[in-house]
Predict the 3D structure of the following.
Amino acid sequence: MDFVNAIILLLNYIFIPALTYGSQLALGAIFVTLIYGILRFANFATGDMMSFGTMATILFTWYFQFLGVSLGVLPTALLAIPFGIIFMILYMLLIDKFVFKYYRHQKSPPVQFAMVSIGVMFVTQAVVRIIIGPADRRFFDGEKFIIKAREFKEITGLNEGLALKSTQVITIFVTIVLVSLLFWFLNRTKTGKSMKAYSDNEDLALLSGIDPKKIVLVTWVIAGILATIGGALYGLDKSFKPFTYFNNMLPIFAAAIVGGIGNPFGAFLGGYVIAFSEILLTYAYKKFFMYVLPVSMEPEGLVQLLSTDYKFAVSFSILVIVLLYRPSGIFKGKVL
Amino acid sequence: MVGIFQSWNIALSIFNLCLISAVMTMGANIQWGYAGLINFGIMGYTALGGLAAVLISVDPVQEAWRAGGFDILMALWLIVVMVLVIRFILKRFEKSKIRTYSIAAIIISGILLIRFSAEPGIEAIEAVDPAKTGFLGGFGLPIVFSWIVGALFAGGLAFIVGKVALGLRADYLAIATLLISEIVIAIIKHEDWLTRGVKNVIGLKRPAPYEVDLQTTDWFINLVEKFNSGKLSVIENLADRQAALNQLVIEGSSVFVKLCYSGLFLVVVIILLILTQKALYSPWGRMMRAIRDNEEAANAMGKNVVKQHLLIFILGSAIVGIAGAMLVTQDGLFTPGSYRPMRYTFLIWVMVIVGGSGNNFGAILGGFVVWFLWIEAAPISLFLINFFTAGIPETNALKAHLIESVPYFRFLLMGLGLLFIMRYRPKGILPEKIEIK
């Protein structure tokens, strides 16, 4: 019985939160990696673009709530996400037309692109803050829990409860659907394949008649979908605050590089690697050992490898180690 | 200009921060402009400089040393032993999987050992009068020394970072340095025994006199009287005149203190400017440009590119460290929570790009212009909003919302400024001048 308790404990505090957080990171990481692979620059505006998409979603959510439209037990935001995506894509295309296009035609080095993306980051941050303000916002409605901790305890008779938030289930479900669709698109359709070809060798791709304008357009459209959904899911699960989104850029970058930048599948797994290592290393295992070990061997301290303050530091250290020993990432991405 | 519109006090504090920004920009400019190395870790070096200011100037907390000093020293000793052992293994054994794994094992077990052996000491230190101290304190030396120590700290960190990350391609280096600086901030924020963490250290020593002391010093009062004799003589009533004088003395004292800081900072800026200018036009500077423009050719000419990159990375970071110590000196307090990448990394980069990379005067100009706009963006945009919406009544929701979000227009201004400069003047306001003799 104690053993089951211990497993439920780990499920509740480590596995499910890490899976949720990992899914949110994975979507962002695929976004980074696509931009890097096809448009060839590290996009420092990642976090802020995600916050723009979330902002658009929130505004539509408020509008729907004002109209009285709702999805019952599901959050209204799910209805608003498609509209948020449209706004996000329009914003990205606008930015691309006025900013990135010029440098693409100039064939500027990646560093210059990175600098320009910092300019975009400043502007996007300003736009988001001017429109919606810097405050913390929750826009979740509908049923909050699928399984409540107390109900779970009553049903199973165990000591440990298992709480399953609906946002967690939605996040994991949406991520799986979206990522499978994306991989189907990249591997099976003609446009997807031409995107891959363009990413591998631009000149050869142009020679074989691939239209670069179309590739860029499709890339931004996919990026917009990923950014908005990733951002909105994070906002639903936790809360929306522009500053947090800017900070999230860092673990997202870490996930993309750990997985091998330019490689979408690597980025997808990289998100989970980062999320699980963050949570595994900073979780206090005291209770777990209390269940597993006999009473005489119970640990005194919290049995925590690192204090939770170092959550971010963990993922960055992993990144540094990966960069040192395997610069191309766990799954071979572009060689540095 | 601000002196006339707002007050001399504000003008001087902006001027001081402009000087500090100029120093930071010069540091970043050495790395980017001279050598083409991209360093997004400026925030980390700034914070280390600030930490140096705390460690140098604060008086040591005797009780804390007694409570946990031994444990901390033991932990430090363990770290040294660990590094030595790893160096020994690296030197003596061939590269193999076993070596990699054993090094990893040593590091992990070492970290665990240190964590558990230092734990009681750290707790004891943090328990010593947590409202006031709760940390080890510093050495109780004058704070100006910390400017040099800050440079050493930052240079030391840059040495480690450079060894690890300099082999990476440009945009990876940017990301790696950015993340490493976040790690540094995380450590400074959460190791309370060293820095008091988010509890902040306040009331640091000053290199300049205190306002309160000045207000009671005779020569200072006489000086203020002399400066304002015209204004004072208009007032007939003796009591009124005395009151006016007192008011002027209070105002004057804070201006005087700020002037002292400005003087000190100006000295630093001028020394650095002379040194960097000399370096730029020396054979060494030419070599750096050669490495930047064509690494392979420079390598073929027998220049040690890796070593020079590391050297310039350390130098630039050390200068940023000085700026970090200066910043804490001028504020008189150390707030680890206030180090944010937006303000201390990206803004500095805007200064470098706008001012002109590779040109020291450009760096200083960038520091001044961008900092001035950063501070004055809010008043300017408030003025503009009021101007354009003059016809709309005060109660209009849009107008109220705009006025409320005035502080964020500075981001917009910076972003647009950066984008325009990058597009139409990619070399900055003062471009690099390469002399061909």
